[in-house]
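Illustration 12: Epoxide hydrolase 1.
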Amino acid sequence: PTILCLPRSFECSQKNTALVPAAALGIGGILVFWLRSRHKIQTIEMGDGWWGSGERPLKGKEDESIRPFKIETSDKEIEDLHRRLEQARYTPPLEGASFHYGFNSSCLQKVVAYWRNQFDWHKQVEVLNKYPHFQTTIEGIDIHFIHVKPSYVPHGRAVQPLLMVHGWPGSFYEFYKIIPLLTEPARHGLDGGDVVFEVICPSIPGYGFSEAPHQKGFDSIAAARIFHKLMNRLGFKQYYLQGGDWGSRITTNMAQMLPQSVKGLHLNLIFIGRLGLRRTISVMLGAYVPWLVGLTREDVRRLYPFIQKNIYNLLQESGYLHIQATKPDTAG
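Figure caption equivalent — predicted structure in token form:
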């Protein structure tokens, strides 16, 4: 019996010898896939959209021309504005309320008086027209933007396109002071290295001189797609992005949508993803039993005053955000 078992044992050992490398290879492959998937860029489908009035035309190509645009006003428009400012009526503010219940009407009267009697609207129009303005039609709506190129490019310098996107409540005008530093750094005593930028500052649809969407469902992903189309229409295949506030979300979506087109992304506001149920429960338990969720005393000392303060401020100061997010057609 012993002699008969030897071949079987030998046969089993041969099978085990063959299985070990196969199992190791399989486990190794799974491990490599897991490690690579952790660092995989989460992309967004570009898709397409139509935000113009009525149904999207079935035939014909959209007008892709770039049209010069100039900001204009008239004495008649300014007189009409003055008349409406003069006819404004105010309710007295609550005593001692300051700005805790909203914009203080006593202060508002001073602001309106400045608009009516001191602000030079014609001069402001001249300031706004300092840089070249353009419009182009994308997905059925007119998109406004300024496009500033460097007047002089030193030998050996590379000109890089930079798209800068504003937020709420803001506009393309936010970037007027920094544009010369980006397009002509040497003139302002800056060492730009080997890089000079040409700057494109669009108005988000519905802001400034960009047409507002006529259809429901417009979001930051739609704005990101439109701005990619804008840069492509201007002849750029790769470009840098900068964004703050809603511009931060839009440019982040642009980088997620076409990462191969985005050479660099600069943000001055970071949107943090959802905590998730597990993280939320950990934060809640951490205030009472920090050791249970792995928090130290120093973590508690730093974390919870910050959360309490910011959650309170968020609830106190974000009423406008809830209205805009849920009832954007509400006037006010």
